[in-house]
């Protein structure tokens, strides 16, 4: 597919708009499978080469964007991989992207989403630099305006809203196609009109190449991470919720059994989770708040481990002090002197003071962290209220899991 043709065209657009039928009209033969049923839509990238007015034209048909399944991961991946393949497998690039729209179906929010999606995939300027709109169902247009004398051009000028915007962005490059016509003259004239627009783009612009696609990598990555964010969020919050529950259990049974070992394991788990979320974020910043949540749990675990070490240290020092006192007492007995008074009484209180200080610091820190986590939770809740949080709230009893134990130093 990499050999350069005189003209390379890529068909894009929503399933059912008539991409394959348009490809067939351009090539003048039934090259692509075009059908009314959504079951047999183009699922892979197909290309066909033909001669149009003596010029070699390559037409590439891609899987449709914006069909009813686009919200499903499988369909998303299929479309994205298909478009990627269409670009990468044809490194010489395309002279034009034919954005296929269907006359009669309004330029809806869904169509607008399709264009937005394609901009994310190909780069923000691809519509302005490389797109030609092919409006199919030209026969319906003619039937609707029969006798009114309205031309397609004047109809375009009357349009408002999103459609007007996209047409403006395309510098008015639009052509009406009737893919069902049997009129040879009409077949030729609509294809020739399209070819004139392609030639105009050829003269004034560059091909859309692999390099242009590389440049759009940032927006494409953003699109992918944004798409996957709800799922990553659900998985991560489920894992962090379990970690918090474990931490709370360990905090309630300090210094018992393999307490330290369990804490350390939990910290390793939190660190691994942080690394995972960080790599899933792919430098886009989309998962920032999620990373902060995991970071906060990591800090709390580190603090808990620090506390554990200090407690052990304190116990050791107390044990040392007791054995020193016992030794001093026995020496005094032997030498017959009065009992020894400790030289630096305050020094012996140091471990306890240190522990109290750590406990207080921890309490203050965790209170702050809890506030921060609840804030980011509320923020996310606003964003995803229709998606995952009601589910999480019910499934993981989130607010109670988030209420970290604060240490009461007076107890
Ligand atoms: N009436 C009419 N139907 C069309 C036209 N272009 C495509 N169709 C029909 O629209 C349906 C979907 O076309 P298809 O090329 O498979 O769309 P794709 O999914 O975008 O490739 C098919 O039943 C086509 O026959 C057109 O210009 N006029
Ligand atoms: Mg098709």
Automatic annotation (TrEMBL):
<feature type="domain" description="AIG1-type G">
    <location>
        <begin position="4"/>
        <end position="217"/>
    </location>
</feature>
<keyword id="KW-0342">GTP-binding</keyword>
<dbReference type="InterPro" id="IPR027417">
    <property type="entry name" value="P-loop_NTPase"/>
</dbReference>
<dbReference type="InterPro" id="IPR006703">
    <property type="entry name" value="G_AIG1"/>
</dbReference>
<protein>
    <recommendedName>
        <fullName>AIG1-type G domain-containing protein</fullName>
    </recommendedName>
</protein>
<keyword id="KW-0547">Nucleotide-binding</keyword>
<comment type="similarity">
    <text>Belongs to the TRAFAC class TrmE-Era-EngA-EngB-Septin-like GTPase superfamily. AIG1/Toc34/Toc159-like paraseptin GTPase family. IAN subfamily.</text>
</comment>
<dbReference type="GO" id="GO:0005525">
    <property type="term" value="F:GTP binding"/>
</dbReference>
<feature type="region of interest" description="Disordered">
    <location>
        <begin position="319"/>
        <end position="348"/>
    </location>
</feature>
<dbReference type="InterPro" id="IPR045058">
    <property type="entry name" value="GIMA/IAN/Toc"/>
</dbReference>
<dbReference type="Pfam" id="PF04548">
    <property type="entry name" value="AIG1"/>
</dbReference>
């Amino acid at each position: 597919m990499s050999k350069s043709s005189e003209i390379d065209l890529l068909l894009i657009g929503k399933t059912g708009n008539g991409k394959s039928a348009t490809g067939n009209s351009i090539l003048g033969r039934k090259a692509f499978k075009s059908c009314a049923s959504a079951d047999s839509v183009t699922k892979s990238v197909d290309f066909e080469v033909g001669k149009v007015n003596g010029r070699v034209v390559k037409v590439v048909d891609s899987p449709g964007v914006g069909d009813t399944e686009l919200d499903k991961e499988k369909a998303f991946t299929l479309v994205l991989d298909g478009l990627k393949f269409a670009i990468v497998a044809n490194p010489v690039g395309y002279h034009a992207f034919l954005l296929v729209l269907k006359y009669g179906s309004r330029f809806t929010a869904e169509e607008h989403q399709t264009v937005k999606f394609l901009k994310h995939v190909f780069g923000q300027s691809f519509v302005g630099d490389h797109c030609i709109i092919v409006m199919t169902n030209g026969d319906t247009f003619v039937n609707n305006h029969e006798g009114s004398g309205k031309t397609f051009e004047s109809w375009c000028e009357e349009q408002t809203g999103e459609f007007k915007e996209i047409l403006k962005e395309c510098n008015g490059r639009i052509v009406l196609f009737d893919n069902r016509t049997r009129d040879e003259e009409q077949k030729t004239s609509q294809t020739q009109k399209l070819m004139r627009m392609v030639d105009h783009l050829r003269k004034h612009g560059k091909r859309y190449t692999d390099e242009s696609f590389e440049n759009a990598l940032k927006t494409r990555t953003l699109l992918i991470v944004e798409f996957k964010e709800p799922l990553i969020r659900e998985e991560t919050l489920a894992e962090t919720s379990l970690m918090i529950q474990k931490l709370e259990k360990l905090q309630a049974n300090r210094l018992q059994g393999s307490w330290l070992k369990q804490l350390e394991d939990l910290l390793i788990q939190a660190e691994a989770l942080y690394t995972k979320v960080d790599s899933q974020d792919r430098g886009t910043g989309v998962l920032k708040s999620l990373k902060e949540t995991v970071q906060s749990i990591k800090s709390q675990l580190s603090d808990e481990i620090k506390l554990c070490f200090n407690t052990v240290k304190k116990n050791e020092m107390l044990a040392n002090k007791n054995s020193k006192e016992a030794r001093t007492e026995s020496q005094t007995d032997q030498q017959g002197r009065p009992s020894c008074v400790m030289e630096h009484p305050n020094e012996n209180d140091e471990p306890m003071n240190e522990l109290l200080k750590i406990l207080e610091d921890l309490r203050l820190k965790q209170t702050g962290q809890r506030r921060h986590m609840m804030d980011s939770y509320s923020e996310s809740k606003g964003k995803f209220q229709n998606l995952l949080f009601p589910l999480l709230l019910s499934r993981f009893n989130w607010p109670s899991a988030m209420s970290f134990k604060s240490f009461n130093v007076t107890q």
